[in-house]
Batch of 2 targets.
Target 1
Amino acid sequence: MSQFTTNDFKEIAFGRKSVRLYDENVKIDRKEMLEMISEATLAPSSVNMQPWRFVVIESDEAKAQLRPLIRFNTRQNDTSSAMVLIFGDLRCYEKAEEIYDQAVAEGKMPQEVREKQLSTIVPYYQSLSRQQMSDIVKIDSSLAAMQFMLVARAHGYDTNPIGGFEADRLAAAFGLDPERYVPVMIVSVGKAAEAGYSSVRLAPEVVTDFK
């Protein structure tokens, strides 16, 4: 995606529509899916803890397992190339050393900053309640979800963000610890088989205050 311009972004962002029905013959290979996820995870996160975790539902068996958990969104499940489940890791701070070691190795963080970050941020995160951590990881993972949808569009695919699912059952259904991983969003992805849904937006003057 070299030579990416403002006009390219406008076409991607403004052209995105919510798609409910996909071309069932289009599959996204795993190499490209991982490339899209890699690009999505360039999204910002609090103190770079990167709490997002992805589960890509692409097989017929996994889709059949997901189907009863997604309420009114079965068309997307049945026809999309994949359903991307996005979770937030409540113990994301356990990756702090790995993340900051990599930053030091790549010359993006001085060693003394690494030490300070680990000695202050990790204990702070450990002291937070489950609800406080949930709020943090849901915000960060939502940023990654939005970026994934824009990235998918840039790759020539369509998406639909889904919030209607059995949140209390989703993690365990796919082998994740529900005490650790909180479901944030499901994003269906593939090639649209019909025009997506457009929607209206309130004017910026309605949703903005200047002080």
Note: Residues 130-154 form the longest helix (25 residues).
Target 2
Amino acid sequence: MTDYIIQILPSMIEGLGVSAEIFALTLVLSLPLGMLLALVRISKIGIFRKIAASYIYLMRGTPLMLQILFIYYGLPLIPGMEVQLGDFSSAIIAFVANYAAYFAEIFRGGIQSINRGQYEGAKVLGFTYKQTMWHIILPQVVKRVIPPLGNEVITLLKDTSLVYVLAMNDLMRVTRALVQRDVDTTPFIVAAVFYLVCTFVLTKILDRIEKHYAVYEE
């Protein structure tokens, strides 16, 4: 078994690299987009607020796999659009669009948990709304939303396996191909170990970040 694991490791590590790239890009792009959506979601402009709410409802109310398939296979079928995106681009757009909606709700909850008195106090001190959000509200929000954000980040890591439907050579697709080729379940075990190790590392990093901010709340 050891020889077989050594033999399949290079292709599985390459697949893990594809999954890691999707994970990293999604995180980098969806976090700021989620914050922007949250700010629009609580804005005083009703039409913008309703559009953001509708978007968030759509993204959270439909499966991520459906969104991936729609962007890759559905967009080219829409009359007048004829947009054919590559598999990687389709995956990134779908993941960012989906996770930005979830992050937006987390950020919105964090923002609305801040006492209204802080807004009034900042106004008395001459702060603009933008200055109040940037210097007073958002630093507190970041501390409060770390635990739920951490849960979504772990979920994102596991959700990267969904891109196998686009025939991308991610970890899950490589694993399935090896199992079918060799009629051996060992690749499943190796893939599980990869995911468990990545989850463990992420959990430790998130725990350290949470403890770091907790020190400054005391």
Note: The two ends are 52 Å apart (CA to CA).
